[in-house]
Amino acid sequence: MTPERYAKILRVLSHRQPTLTVLMDEVNKPHNLSAIVRTCDAVGVLEAHAVPPSHGTLATFEGHTYDATSGSAHKWVGVQSHSDAISAVRELQGKGFQVLATHLSQRSVDYREPDYTRPTCVLLGAEKWGVSDEAAEAADQNIIIPMFGMVQSLNVSVAAATILFEAQRQRLAAGMYAQPQLTPEELARRAFEWGYPDLAPAYRERGEAYPALDEQGQIAG
Question: Largest Cα–Cα distance of the chain, in whole Å?
């Protein structure tokens, strides 16, 4: 690993936002999944969540067979699998996240109204049927993107980007990208995994701690 590569890894990790995430509920088209993950990387999401589709391309999610749309972003944004949307919503709420479901209901608000500086998860539904009524009800709030055209909704990956960049805007204004949100230990751990993806699994299998890296990104000692 070159010093320049290591410096970029540290810079990116210093901007990661562990309190901002998405939950993709049965998003089954590979290009949409890939595009959402790419946007997650762009705004600094540390880890995404997903319920694999009930039908079709399970391998797209579980096997991490992303298409070119991701721009290799899947290497930098982990995707945690969940069995169903309701349990995933409850788990994230239990960790202190507000869950904002993209869903039209009587309690929907403009997507720009919520406070995205709070720990936030954006719940996105499948392409054809969107977020289920049950999942939307379990969410803390429903949000919509105002539409003034003949088409009533955006592509799910475009909607994700619109909402996540609003979250980024609010967090930038609040100074949340100015200081690392990861602990020094977590940042160092992920820097090793990103910098040495071929070595990291062997250390984990042996139950050994990762070696320290020097200022150039080389294994110390």
Answer: 64
Q: How confident is the model at residue 1 (pLDDT cuts 50, 70, 90)?
A: confident
Tokens 């980024």 sit at which residue? 168
**Closest by alpha carbon to 21, among 108, 93, 127?**
93
Range(s) within the chain of domains with CATH label 3.40.1280.10:
17-173
CB of 157 closer than 8 Å to CB of 35: yes
User: Under CATH, to which class is 17-173 assigned?
Assistant: alpha beta
CA 146 from centre of chain: 23
Alpha-carbon gap, residue 186 to 171, rounded angstroms: 21
Taking only the tens place, the pLDDT of each residue in 38-95 is 999 999 999 999 998 875 444 445 544 444 444 466 789 999 999 999 999 999 999 9
